[in-house]
Amino acid sequence: MSEQKQRSVDPAVLEMVEVAAKHGLPTIWDRLDAQKGQCRFGREGLCCRMCFMGPCRVTEEGKGAQQGICGATAETIVARNLLRHVAGGAAAHSDHGREIVKTLFLAASGDSKAYQVRSPGRMRALAAEFGVPLDGRSDSDVAGELARLFMAEFSKQEGTLLNLQRAPEAQRANWRAAGVTPRGIDREIVTGLHMTTMGVDNDPEHLLLAAARVALADGWGGSMIATDLSDVLFGEPEPLRSAVNLGVLKEDHVNILVHGHEPTLSDVIAAVSRDPQMVAEANAVGAKGINLAGICCTANEILMRHGIPIAGNFLQQELAVMTGAIDLLLVDVQCVFPALARLQECFHTKVVSTSPKAKFPGAEHIEFHEEHALDCARRIVRMAIDSFRRRDPAKVRIPKVHERLVAGFTTQVVFRILGGRYRPSYRPLNDGIQAGRLRGVAGVVGCNNPKFTHDECHLALVRELLRNDVLVVQTGCSAIACGKGGLLAPEAAARYAGKGLQEICEAVGIPPVLHLGACVDNSRILTACAEMVKEGGIGDSFDKLPVVGAAPEWMSEKAVAIGMYFVASGISVVIGQPLPVEGSRVVVDFLTRKMREYFGATWSFQPDPIKAAHLMIDHLDRKRAELGLPPPMYEVPYAPQTAEGTPVFAAATVPAPSATS
């Protein structure tokens, strides 16, 4: 058990890891152990597979090959590989955005029973922002033109992305000077990949600036479009209460677990699972109802808009199946383990894949198309009900662990919370920073990675930031980790926050950690920073703001793209596992030092969460000093330089509330 304790700080995870070991069921940690020593050349970015004269492995150290077969140096190989990672991450998030635009077209047509514009006010505000005429036009007309406008952003060949007008002029000037202003979303991804082809670009700095341009096309393009139009289609999130962790599963209900990233089907599943006819069908097979929960970012999407509870984050997906209580696991795209389908051999759980882009051998594939969303959702819910009848009660083990949380924060919600209904404003936030009551703001985002003790880095880092009066905003699996750790409840301010942050949270009635949504919703952090600049008093550009980002346990190419668009936007980022660039001192120097000359921000690599928090706090203090702001109102001594022994989960748990409580 001592070795298993190192897997996670989450008691629900530890309980299920013990169950897995008892029954000989391999987990992601076992598969990591089976890899033994992972390849240093791959870890440091020194392996080149751009052509088939190789693969080539090179080194800067004077031992072994100094160049690839074609003559490419370590600097070129490492920079090309990083650009490819950024392009892969940008493609994933931006393709998500494209699917949302397609769904808006369907809603605009009026032919869909599943999709409609649920936030016409938000839609008209977007239309006005981008010059779409509104007078005398129906919602469907406006929605159709807005969809055409944003779909053109993907294929645009000339000019620049529309959303760039939201950035401060200083940021746009930096992009122009560096030659990284993004044009069309698809164009930048394709051009970036072309540049990495054998015999094309061999200049490491030029390749890394191209990576910045590709990432900006994602952050200010595909991801921002996905966020804005999801709010139009599925409803603007509002603060709501829910619960998180495996204890939200119900032994006497049909349990459906949605996992992935795209909300187009899961939003309809949420509606269909509450349909009285479906509930009656579940009752007929002996279930008391239908319980919907989520894993990863699909979970965050339906949490933010419907209050549907979250069963866990990335590393908990197969453990959820091992509870024996999941009747159907619905997956779409991104972050889905191929191992899930193999668990069907041990449990009754039906694994169903739905995306035309993603099939999983062993899973049943029901291809989802928005035009038939309701029929598809009903078919899937009925499959779950049928699966419930085959559940073996002897195999059911649901950890009695869950926590309350509050989610549903957006750029617009923060306006209203801070300034009130009749005078929405970011002024109170800026005033709190100017006075020193708040040290600054940190965006802590990203995945889990089995190389780290599950959730420990997220929790230790965020708690140290809170202790030092830093307001934290989160998305994705990081937000889920902190929800499980009790940090997304208003009561957390009194327990974890410094005195200045406590005063802000108590006055406004918010948690010290604000959940902004799925990983694609990191664009909300960009728009919130733009509002802080507009409000004035704490800098006229992002790189002047007392704002910093972090991804403590990242593992995905999407995280590389996100970090790159933050840094290229002027927000410095601290990550746990280093980027795969340590094979080149030139590339490391560019990322950790020279990027400041172009964008006013850099990357930092620090696996220890407490040391990472201190890097972030020191950065915020430097920004305050550069702005001539007073030191923090309440000085806090640093914690010891280790997270060992720090209790990151509360011992007690609370009953899971209903979605509407």
Numbering strands along the chain, what is their spatial order in the largest sheet?
6-5-4-7-8-9
Largest sheet geometry: 6 strands, parallel
Question: Can you tell me the overall shape?
Answer: globular
Query: Pairing-aware structural class of the strands and helices?
Result: alpha/beta
Number of helices, counting only DSSP H or I runs of 4 residues or more: 26
Query: Beta-sheet strand percentage?
Result: 5-15%
Mean pLDDT: 93
Low-pLDDT runs of 5+ residues are 641-661
- Gyration radius from CA atoms, angstroms: 24 Å
User: How many angstroms does the end-to-end distance come to?
Assistant: 37 Å
Helical residue percent band: 40-55%
Total beta strands: 16
Describe it.
Helices cover 47% and strands 10% of the residues. With 661 residues, the protein is of the alpha/beta class. It has a 6-stranded parallel β-sheet. A 6-stranded parallel β-sheet has the order 13-12-11-14-15-16, with helices on both faces. It has a two-stranded antiparallel sheet with strand order 1-2. Strand 15 (573-575), helix 25 (585-599) and strand 16 form a beta-alpha-beta unit. The chain is globular and about 65 Å long. It starts with a helix and ends in a 35-residue tail after the last helix. Mean pLDDT is 93; it is low at 641-661.
